[in-house]
Design goal:
With 327 residues, the protein is an all-alpha fold. It contains 13 helices and no strands. α3 runs antiparallel to α5 and α9 crosses α12 (222-248). The model is unreliable at 1-5 (pLDDT under 50).
């Protein structure tokens, strides 16, 4: 009725697409099981499984003739259903029969509520920067910005992969002795910098050329924007890994505080920079938001670790006395 004519293929495509949300949610739960169990090889393999399968299915659909939207949506939903089924099957098979000392459901809910905002990161998930470009700049500027934004995915993917490994490692260390978490966090932060910085540096060096080759001279202006976004992506990558570590240590609330601080800094910086620098101003504002989030998160993490160390220092004499009394 909305589009008129023979739009049955749109209705079919829409009905098929409705199955994507439950499939995606089930896939995330399956991946969370694998992450918590420490089955990293299965986690990484099943995490990326839908993408190459979807690309492989698109090739014959692209080469075919006629209206292919229902088939494309079926392929998109199907690969996520497959990913969900595989991850849940492997994850549920690996669950122990019993988990001594498991947290209560109420404690899990509180942790989830405190951690939710930091975990989903609306700036990255919902692309608030892209929204600002679309609202306040021209469609041409939005197109250029979207092209530039495509090149920050690799640093983000690397950081998400490192964070996914760090999260359960930190949680397991905290369950034994909270003092063990610090070295693990520092190790993964160094690893993030050692991997992400060279990748971003190479991308910064060659991204203008890549844009000209694959997108044409019309999008050459996106090169500068992409370079700014890649520099900011380094900050967001380190912030992402530290946030995952904080949640693993049960400190999800500090990641949420840092995330909220980044929203405020993004809006303030954009209000100052966009009128003068347009899309590049949004990119710089995004980098400032990443720097603010990382600074707040690092400060709160250091303070929490200092409090933990002080409490351990006060508790040490008491433990010694109890040990002597026991003798």
């Amino acid at each position: 009725m909305v589009y008129g004519g023979d739009a049955r293929y749109l209705l079919v495509s829409g009905l098929v697409s409705a199955a994507f949300v439950p499939a995606w949610v089930a896939h995330q739960y399956g991946l969370a099981l694998l992450q918590g169990l420490g089955r990293r090889a299965w986690f990484q393999a099943l995490r990326v499984l839908p993408s190459p399968l979807y690309c492989a299915l698109l090739v014959p659909l692209f080469l075919g003739e006629g209206q292919r939207l229902p088939e494309v949506m079926t392929a998109w939903v199907g690969v996520h259903v497959l990913g969900a089924a595989a991850s849940l099957w492997v994850g549920l098979r690996g669950l122990p029969a019993a988990t001594p000392g498991a947290p209560a459901a109420a404690e899990l809910r509180r942790f989830g509520l405190r951690s939710m905002v930091g975990a989903i990161s609306p700036i990255e998930t919902f692309r608030l920067d892209q929204l600002l470009v679309g609202l306040f700049l021209s469609p041409v500027a939005l197109g250029i910005y979207v092209v530039a934004l495509a090149f920050v995915n690799l640093p983000r993917f690397i950081a998400a992969s490192i964070g996914a490994v760090a999260y359960p490692r930190v949680a397991a260390a905290v369950a034994k002795d909270r003092a063990l978490a610090g070295p693990i966090v520092r190790h993964h932060m160094r690893l993030t910098l050692l991997v992400v910085v060279p990748v971003a540096a190479v991308a910064i060096a060659f991204v203008p050329l890549v844009i000209r080759v694959f997108f044409g001279e019309e999008f050459a202006e996106a090169g500068t924007t992409a370079r700014i976004l890649l520099a900011g992506a380094v900050l967001f990558s380190v912030d992402r890994v530290l946030g995952d570590c904080a949640r693993g240590a049960g400190l999800g609330a500090i990641d949420t505080v840092a995330e909220v601080a980044s929203w405020a800094s993004l809006l303030v910086a954009a209000a100052v920079l966009v009128p003068a620098f347009e899309a590049n101003g949004v990119a710089v504002a995004l980098g400032i938001a990443g720097a603010v989030s990382l600074a707040v998160l690092a400060t709160l993490w250091t303070r929490a670790e200092g409090t933990r160390a002080a409490n351990d220092g006060r508790a040490a004499p008491e433990r010694a006395l109890r040990t002597q009394d026991g003798r």
